[in-house]
Amino acid sequence: MPRRSADETRTLILEAAIHLLLERGVTAGVQHVRLQEVLRSVGLTTGAAYRIWTDQDDFHRDLAVAMVGVRFAPPVTSAMIAIQDILAANGPLVEVVRAAALDQVTYSSKFHLEPESRDSHAFITALALRTAAGAWPELRAASAVRHRESIDAFAALYGALLQRYERRMREPMTIVDFTEAMAALGEGFAIRAAEGLNHPMYDVPDGADIPSGEWTLFGISILGMIEGFTVPLEDSTRETSRT
Fold this sequence. Notes:
Structural class: mainly alpha
Strand order of the largest sheet: 1-4
Shape: elongated
Order of helices and strands: HHHHHHHHEHEEHEH
Helix content: 55-70%
């Protein structure tokens, strides 16, 4: 067999370490994934690893950075699937919000309903590492990259939805400002779910100030954010005609 390069060996070891980390979950932490154990799982010697990392701490830093970068799908995949039928049927924006919010809440509920699932371990482990990012410059940089990827992806989605439903940002706010606020809101509810707190649900009757039907608190919050951050394009036209 051809000899592996140092980069190939590093990738092999880190992939095996991530697999162990996802099996054990966030309570184990990267410090409990021992390099010797990972080496045994892939049939490598100590020498192969220590040509890459100087010690356990060096390995753990690299593992933390690699774990923060793990994604099983692009950031907007689940949201797009949740709203695709509504968009295809030219449904109203309020139904897009309802469906996307419910999808996020349903996904987040897995963190305590299915605590041993791969998705739960991946999300909570990455979240825990990101909250500790200040400890290592490399981890802080990796967390910033992950955050920026998510913001860019969702800003593109939200921008397209605003255009489709003929709304614009209120000046001087931008679509990135809106996306950052949405990310903070969504992650806040995700942390609640990870703590085992049930998400508040509402059955809104006809004639209420909020559109009727079943709503998540997340969805109602998004409606308020849309109202606060954006205005209909016709309002913009009306304002222009007055000047």
